[in-house]
Amino acid sequence: MWLHEWAYERKLGDDLRRRLPPGDLGLPFIGNMWAFLRAFKSGAPDYFIDSFVGRYGRTGIYKSFMFGSPTIMVTIPETCKQVLMDDEHFVTGWPKAAVELVGKKSFIGISPEEHKWLRKLTSAPINGPDSLSTYLKFIEETVVSTLEKWTEMGQIEFLTEVRRFTFRIIMHIFLSVEGESVMESLERVYTDLNYGIRAMAIKVPGFAYHRALKARKKLVEVLQSTLNNRRSSRVKGHSEKAKDMMDFLIDVEDEDGRRLDDEEIIDTLIMYLNAGHESSGHITMWATTFLQENHEYLEKAKAEQEEIRRNMLPTQNGLKLKDIKKMEYLSKVIDETLRVVNISFVSFRQATSNVYVNGYLIPKGWKVQVWYRSVHMDPKVYPDPKEFNPSRWHGLVPKAGAFLAFGGGSRLCPGNDLAKLEISVFLHYFLLGYRLERLNPGCRLRYLPHPRPTDNCLAKIVKLPASSR
């Protein structure tokens, strides 16, 4: 183990080596990955960072060796904030394997300047008020029809069905695709892609990363074919007003007239489509189950939705954005679900120069992991962190770096408003008309790539009698 550390640290010189944070680089080649995987696969994910805290104290910064690179892990609000807000000294640093899957021209693979440019071009059609208002009607119609269908299906894997529901929405927004067979086929491909993003890069049949590479290849083929057809239609004079995200990405240009090339369009779509249904689907499932298991919070959330419904004008047809903004308690439910579940438990950066954080050196070129999960589950930051308690958010304004559900700094998740809109609309209709009956409420959990019950939340969706609605 000491030889492994020496091989990477000797280049720094004795003075700089002494300024490194506490920690260890683990075994040669493997580093700390076995300890990481063992903790997450044993059902005790917090043990991994807790083991560093127990050995080296609550310094909030530790050296390690993760995903094939010497790595500094930051784990408390103060150190996380410094890394996330400092674009000069920290750039995106995802493992090469993840960049290969999501795309070299996606947000996780491009330079800070390119990221700023691409984010500016794509933010309005994702989170802009006009766009959200446009999406709301389709989301609402999909929620209503999907909930009704689930009641007729009997026993379902609730998580699987919710992921299909969120995928249907994101595919409509981005590609105007609504065919059920196409949806299910592409959704399965995206599942394979997502499972490989945080897996070890083993290109051997049977391993998650190998399946993910095949999924990536298929997605690129499908998207390139669709893109070719769109461009061909335009050449033939069949161009129509932009109707989805792909059309927008084909048309958009900056002030200098620069447009996106095919690789940029495809990688952007793969990134948004993957993130847009995985996170929303899992958080929708967990928020629903948490409320169903906590009667006090369920009644508070339901009462708020009933009040919103009562205050609608008789002529109003469906929800409006102004109604979503009134869902203050439901917003707390969603934030608390994001905190407890930690869909994205870590993000990746890389130091562009030697930089000091909390008095410790992060060497130039070393990877940096920002551990969102350790912040959200820290009892010094959130008392009784494992308890689901939306009321903790009453009057609480988290200090910088203390709530990282959508990341932070210039790389804050660009689809956060759309995600919360989807979840809010779903919970509105669910609370007012349905009940979840889990078949295995004590089911064991898996934590990679995202926390989920091993049975994918096997349950029945029951329609409430009219007197209860």
UniProtKB/TrEMBL annotation:
Looking up InterPro entries in the UniProt record yields: Cyt_P450, Cyt_P450_CS, Cyt_P450_E_grp-IV, Cyt_P450_sf
Residues reported in the UniProt entry to bind heme:
C413
| Molecular-function GO term, any one | iron ion binding
Checking PROSITE patterns in the record gives: CYTOCHROME_P450
Which locations, inside or outside the cell, does it occupy? Membrane
This protein's superkingdom?
Answer: Eukaryota
Q: Which cofactor does it need?
A: heme
What Gene Ontology cellular component terms go with this record?
endoplasmic reticulum; membrane
- Major localization listed first in the record, in broad terms: membrane
GO biological process assignments: brassinosteroid biosynthetic process; brassinosteroid homeostasis; gibberellin biosynthetic process; sterol metabolic process
Q: Where are its TM segments located?
A: none
Q: Name one Pfam family in it.
A: p450
Q: To which pathway does this protein belong?
A: Plant hormone biosynthesis; gibberellin biosynthesis; Hormone biosynthesis
Q: Which residues form a coiled coil?
A: none
Q: Which UniProt keywords apply?
A: Heme, Iron, Membrane, Metal-binding, Monooxygenase, Oxidoreductase, Transmembrane, Transmembrane helix
Annotated membrane topology is: Single-pass membrane protein
Q: Which family does it belong to?
A: Belongs to the cytochrome P450 family.
Name of the featured protein: Ent-kaurenoic acid oxidase 1
User: What organism is the protein native to?
Assistant: Platanthera zijinensis
